[in-house]
Predict the 3D structure of the following.
Amino acid sequence: MLEPHTPAYLETAPHVIVRGEGVRVWDSEGRSYFDGASSMLCVNLGYSEPRLIQAASEQLAKLPFYASYGHRTTDVALALAEDLAEISPLRMGRTFFANSGAEANDSAFKIAWYYHRSLGRPERVKIISQEQGYHGTTVATASATGISHIHQGFGLPLPYFLKVPCPDPLSPQAQGMTNDQFVDWLVAQLEDLIDDEGADTIAAFIAEPIIGAGGVIIPPPGYYHRVEEVLARHDILFIADEVITGFGRTGSMFATTEFDLTPDMITLAKGLSSAYIPISAVMLEKRVVDALVKGSAELDGFGHGFTYSGHPVGAAVARECLAILRERDIPGYVRTTAPMLADGLGAFRGAELVRDVRGHGFLGAITFDPAAAGTAAGELGTALMARSAEHGLLIRAIGDTIAFAPPLISSDAELKTMIDCFAAAYQDVLNGL
Ligand code: PLP
């Protein structure tokens, strides 16, 4: 197997996970681990939700597959689109289904191009994104991703993919600035880029409400509202990438609602099915759909879609997942339980080697300072991740930042155990320096 995001030269055997239950997984050696990262920030309902398993098996027995193509679809795909329309923060037009976060974002770019083409401005093709933003690794989404090792070796990014600075309060640019000054600076960078490139060449801006894989970066308050003003003035579409933040992670069903944003499209994946089966979606604002309707009449078609768009088993699992999120008010549970996680992580504030502690909902991070430790960049993160596993906790290191994203069903006691495991790992690393 050519493992994703893994150096191909590694000769040691990979760590093999074979079983999961609740918020824990077991490896092939029989060792158990608390999953402090919901695998890839996606197994939001934990590993043994019987209703999701039942929804998948019932749909497999009834209709394992029929494609949504050429004006023929399935009852369950249509029903899922209705379910999403009911809870969407957008003035809903329609929902397009795909299979992964990258496919959803790739689709959103193509829809932005098609939208502008439909309105008679085919020259609007450029996509703006943020340094450190992560949107996937297909050719187009890797180009929008602002992380250099995702480009390296692949001849990416493609032309037309432009970047603005990351709204990271820890970045060198932000130092010595007040919050408002930093927001002014970020917005000026966006305005300058638009002026330099020409607004009439730009199709869309894509961003995560909270940057996840790029380091759990929480933009300064007010930033996105100012960005939205600029985008609206230049008629640039705003794509909110809620692949991580969607479905409760921040304590709301959508971060778009929580932060009072008004995007034109929202991309979703991961938590849509709690990762039990691949499915993703792009929710489209009405004005975008209206333009697509006009454009597809002129072009006599809409040449975009995947064999598995709206896969009935994925749709059935996603419908059940949404039902569980609503019936159990999982976003509300996250809101009320998040202070417990924040307090646990907050205990590391001011501790040796710790540069910053932050979080929102069930998404937290501790950034360590390699200069204080005298280690190379990323070494502390790798060591903390390895020691945490020894103490029975799986977490993700992003450079020297440790990301915490436990399943949204984690109890107080489970969160406390996860933090205790991490504290033991931290102590080991300190002792070993
Ligand atoms: N967008 C965001 C914000 C993500 O975090 C990810 C994956 O981590 C993606 C898009 C890509 O999703 P996928 O890996 O399903 O293609």
Summary: The longest strand covers residues 92-98. Residues 412-432 form the longest helix (21 residues). The pocket of pyridoxal-5'-phosphate is lined by residues 40, 100-102, 105, 134-136, 208, 212-213, 241, 243-244, 269 (CB under 6 Å).
